[in-house]
Amino acid sequence: MKKILLLSDTHSYIDDRILEYAQQADEIWHAGDIGDISVTDKLAAIKPLRAVYGNIDDHKVRGEFPLNNRFILEGVDVWITHIGGYPGKYNPAIRNEIYTNPPKLFICGHSHILKVMPDKKVGLIHMNPGAVGKHGFQKVRTMLRFELNAGKIENLEVIEFAK
Question: Family, per the entry (predicted)?
């Protein structure tokens, strides 16, 4: 069993409350728009980090993290990308792969809108943790945490902060 903290769209912002939640996780996943590389440096100093770069990220972040990160953890096939879309509206650059070789858990960021929904057509769960940074239109900053356990996604929680 692994406890996951999922965040996105930090836009160079990190605070002690985010880091407190990071301490409680087994792994931290960042779905892009990291901003300053110091954000991921702080997270990686706490727990193992998996991340992708987003559209605002510079050459340092892009040199450190991939556009797509696909892996299997605790029996769950996971795909993280920044601009992925959502069920019925996937990014055209990845749509074919989603339909022909779907992961069990598809994660993206970019929209700043927290969304968790199934795609019953292909049998995956889509997660977007929203934005935990202070830049953007969101009224509430959000992250997700959950557990992966023997092929299952369990105990999903939404974490909210005032903007």
Answer: Belongs to the metallophosphoesterase superfamily. YfcE family.
CA–CA separation, 5 and 136 (whole Å): 21
Prediction pTM value: 0.97
Using an 8 Å Cβ cutoff, are 140 and 160 in contact? Answer: yes
b/e sequence 111-127, b meaning 16+ C-beta within 10 Å: bbebeeeebeebebbbb
- Looking at residue 136, its pLDDT comes to 87
**β-strand partners of 144:** 6, 158
In this prediction, the residues of the chain whose per-residue pLDDT falls under 70 are none
Closest CA to 32 of 10, 48, 13, 49: 10
CA-based nearest residue to 31, from 105, 124, 140, 119: 105
The torsion of the CA quartet 137, 139, 145, 151, rounded to 10 degrees, works out to: -60
Instruction: Work out the number of other CB atoms within 10 angstroms of the CB of residue 8.
Output: 33
Q: Give pLDDT, residue 18.
A: 98
State the Cα–Cα distance between residues 10 and 159, nearest whole angstrom. 14
